């Protein structure tokens, strides 16, 4: 009986010690659990396949930026590889998230690590290491997926048809043809020189320009550059109306797609977007410089303009000067610059953006010589009295800006 009590006592002491201090056995079990959990994580990551992509609702592809691969214009993706990958994503019922990297080494690293599901670029096996070749599968269209993603690879093979590339290439070339960039009816730059009337929309420009403190003639100059005063204009990228707004941009500022072709709403949406750009570039203290940057961002996108500002600053130039930054906007058409490791938004039709700003500034200067700040709202109606009001902010702009 005494021996039994001793054993019970020893068991009690052992159990108590287990509650107070972790035993070596417990440590080993915890470490083993951790290893097993890590292996499970790694296995789950490497085995990520078609069903997982479809379940997530998103296909993540990586590529290099370029006019023939992927670039953004007014918030929309374009480029041959982007359009083909988007079509494949749609075919499997997912949305596409396209991400850019600066070189092929990073493309492969992101794929193998599981940060991306596929490489949306024509991969050349001669540029890969033997380890990379074992880890990835190059498909008939030269895209690449992880070796473990067998179902995804088979799905792309079944979807792919060599004629698809021909079709999408023709569509991209048509988009880049200057004659196809916008469908519009061109109106005169001045509706009546003798009366100082720029367009049929002058009263709308005057009303909305005051929101951002602009001379209304500057807004009119931008409108002519966008649509030549055609309220039904549609661009190759899908921009609509007088101020050529993308439907997604209009929705961000509270204007529906149905309202976009209405002159008043279209101009209202553009001014709301310009107000956002004014805030975005509030770090540019000089008003005339800020106007140029706002116009450039309206055309090319904020991200691209910030990339050019970064490149200028890296070369020791003031990034608040349009004359300093505009050459770098032009250089974003060159691979050396749009694939720079610090450039986040890649390729840009830089020449189009710089020309856009220059044309608007020159036309604004012309309008200021031909149209008075407000008299053209009531051209030749002496019976109608102009309302008395406080001098609007839009008139505060210095006449020497251009």
What would your notes on this structure say?
With 402 residues, the chain is mainly alpha-helical. The protein has two domains: 50-178, Periplasmic binding protein-like II (D-Maltodextrin-Binding Protein, domain 2, 3-Layer(aba) Sandwich); 195-396, Lysozyme. 52% of the residues lie in helices and 8% in strands. A hairpin with a 2-residue loop joins strand 2 and strand 3. Helix 9 (202-212) crosses helix 10 (216-227) and helix 15 (322-331) packs across helix 17 (350-370). The termini are far apart. Residues 16-46 and 375-400 have low confidence and may be disordered.
Q: Return the domain count.
A: 2
SSE series: HHHEEEHEHEHEEHHEHHEHHHHHHH
* Share of residues in strands: 5-15%
Total count of helical runs of at least 4 residues:
17
Write the topology of this structure:
Elements: H1 2-20, H2 24-46, H3 50-56, E1 58-64, E2 71-73, E3 76-78, H4 80-91, E4 95-101, H5 104-113, E5 118-119, H6 130-135, E6 136-138, E7 144-146, H7 150-159, H8 162-176, E8 182-183, H9 202-212, H10 216-227, E9 234-235, H11 247-252, H12 263-280, H13 287-300, H14 302-314, H15 322-331, H16 335-338, H17 350-370
Parallel strand pairs: 1-4, 1-5
Antiparallel strand pairs: 2-3, 6-7, 8-9
Helix pairs in contact: 9-10, 9-12, 10-17, 12-13, 13-14, 13-17, 14-15, 15-17
């Amino acid at each position: 009986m005494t021996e039994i009590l001793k054993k019970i006592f020893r068991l009690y002491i052992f159990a108590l010690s287990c509650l107070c201090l972790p035993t070596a056995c417990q440590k080993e079990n915890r470490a083993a659990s951790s290893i097993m959990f890590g292996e499970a994580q790694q296995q789950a990551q490497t085995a990520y396949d078609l069903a997982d992509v479809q379940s997530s609702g998103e296909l993540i592809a990586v590529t290099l930026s370029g006019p023939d691969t992927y670039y953004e214009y007014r918030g929309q993706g374009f480029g041959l590889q982007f359009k083909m990958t988007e079509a494949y994503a749609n075919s499997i019922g997912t949305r596409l998230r396209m991400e850019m990297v600066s070189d092929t080494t990073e493309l492969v690293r992101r794929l193998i690590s599981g940060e991306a599901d596929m490489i949306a670029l024509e991969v050349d096996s001669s540029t890969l290491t033997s380890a990379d070749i074992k880890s990835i599968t190059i498909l008939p269209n030269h895209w690449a997926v992880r070796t473990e993603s067998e179902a995804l690879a088979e799905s792309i093979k079944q979807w792919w048809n060599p004629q698809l590339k021909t079709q999408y290439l023709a569509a991209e070339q048509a988009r880049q043809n200057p004659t196809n960039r916008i469908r519009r009816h061109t109106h005169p730059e001045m509706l009546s020189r003798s009366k100082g009337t720029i367009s049929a929309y002058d009263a709308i420009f005057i009303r909305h320009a005051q929101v951002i403190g602009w001379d209304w003639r500057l807004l009119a100059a931008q409108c002519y550059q966008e649509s030549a005063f055609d309220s039904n204009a549609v661009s190759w990228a899908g921009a609509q109306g007088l101020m050529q707004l993308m439907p997604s941009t209009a929705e961000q500022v509270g204007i529906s797609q149905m309202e976009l072709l209405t002159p008043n709403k279209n101009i209202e949406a553009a001014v709301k977007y310009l107000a956002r750009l004014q805030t975005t570039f509030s770090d540019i203290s000089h008003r005339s410089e800020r106007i140029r940057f706002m116009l450039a961002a309206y055309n090319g996108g904020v991200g691209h303009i910030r990339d050019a500002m970064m490149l200028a600053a890296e070369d020791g130039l003031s990034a608040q000067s349009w004359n300093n930054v505009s050459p770098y906007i032009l250089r974003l058409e060159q691979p050396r610059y749009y694939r720079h490791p610090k450039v986040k938004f890649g390729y840009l039709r830089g020449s189009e953006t710089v020309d856009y700003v220059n044309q608007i500034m020159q036309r604004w200067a012309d309008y200021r010589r031909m149209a008075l700040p407000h008299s053209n709202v009531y051209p030749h109606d002496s019976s109608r009295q102009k309302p008395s009001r406080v001098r609007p902010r839009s008139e505060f702009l210095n006449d020497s800006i251009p």
